């Protein structure tokens, strides 16, 4: 289905814009043309909007609802929806968890990857997420050599806005890495497919359905030369860079043993510290490293549920944001979180960081910023994350009549403090792509 040329959401009880002034509008409305917002207001909709009669717009009635900018998921492994709550890995930390699951993932075929992506994206849409990345680094021998295309096709079927990363693993167990031999690729194969994927899929235009980034998996699964060459390739084509970093103490020990330095020093040595980079997890950074990340403008994808599930630690979110790093939120892979509910991650973030420093240690507003505008910054999506003219018309609509919000006084805080309810509707580019059954 094509995007309606003109679209109007009206009658929102509360419209949370996340615009420059962080305005929250009662009785709000949003108008869009060709998938991009042209006007935002409150009260009665004018008879003419953006030069056209408002009666001619495709309309969505958000009466009784809180409307947010579509939530942004900054880190995922969609294929892992095939291996949730896996026996033998239920009570494991990261490294043994990976060693258990790598052989299982190596047996997945194209159909499994396709279904996994559809399931993960539909779960995200149900939670109000309109834009997601996917860190796809697994390329089993039995699967298609163009496996990322399979994942992208599946995601586009769901209607979500997609920012996949062409991941990679080149260092197997025999080379001192963690993954087995049958899930790694050589550098030339990896870089050739990166070129192909960028050429085939990357769209830099505002409101693009697909943009691409490049994402070697981690310091314990790729070699330094591939990291350098990937950065050069990405910057030549103007795409972003992503990897896991500083997720566990084991990773720190590995980098000291293999490279003689800590993970962030390794990252900087291969030319990766910059504003076009965002990192998954970022837990075990020292004070001086947080300052370096802030000066570089390097982003962090905070994955609270996954980090708690694997016992990895807690990201120093406020320190990173204070230093200047954009911090987005993420569900991470559905075998370490076992869910793709992004709204649940907002609640988890709020509560986790209050445990650390009291109720004032994390506010509802801060979490909403990370889930929208800062998540978009991590992905370099200047066209997402806020309800404002020129941004994509990506909206998450939550019904205050849902039983989980019954009795709530603050309608915005209710979305984070109360048990997460499915969105009533999720709108991408001015098109309803998910709607909750009555």
Give a quick precis of the structure.
The protein has 438 residues and is α/β, with parallel strands linked by helices. It is built from 14 helices and 18 strands.
Provide key terms for this protein.
8-stranded parallel β-sheet; single chain; Urease, subunit C, domain 1; TIM Barrel; alpha/beta; 2 domains; 8-stranded mixed β-sheet; 438 residues
Structure notes:
By secondary structure, the chain is an alpha/beta fold. The protein folds into two domains: 6-70 and 386-435, Urease, subunit C, domain 1, CATH 2.30.40.10; 71-378, Metal-dependent hydrolases (TIM Barrel), CATH 3.20.20. It is 34% helix and 22% strand. The protein has 14 helices and 18 strands. Strands 1, 2, 3, 6, 7, 16, 17 and 18 form an eight-stranded mixed beta sheet that branches. An eight-stranded parallel beta sheet has the order 8-9-10-11-12-13-14-15. Strands 4-5 form a two-stranded antiparallel sheet. Helix 5 links the parallel strand 11 and strand 12. Helix 4 packs parallel to helix 5 (224-237), helix 8 crosses helix 10 (317-323) and helix 11 packs across helix 12 (364-371). The longest helix is centred in the N-terminal third of the chain and has 17 residues, at 110-126. The radius of gyration is 21 Å and the shape is globular. The mean pLDDT is 95.
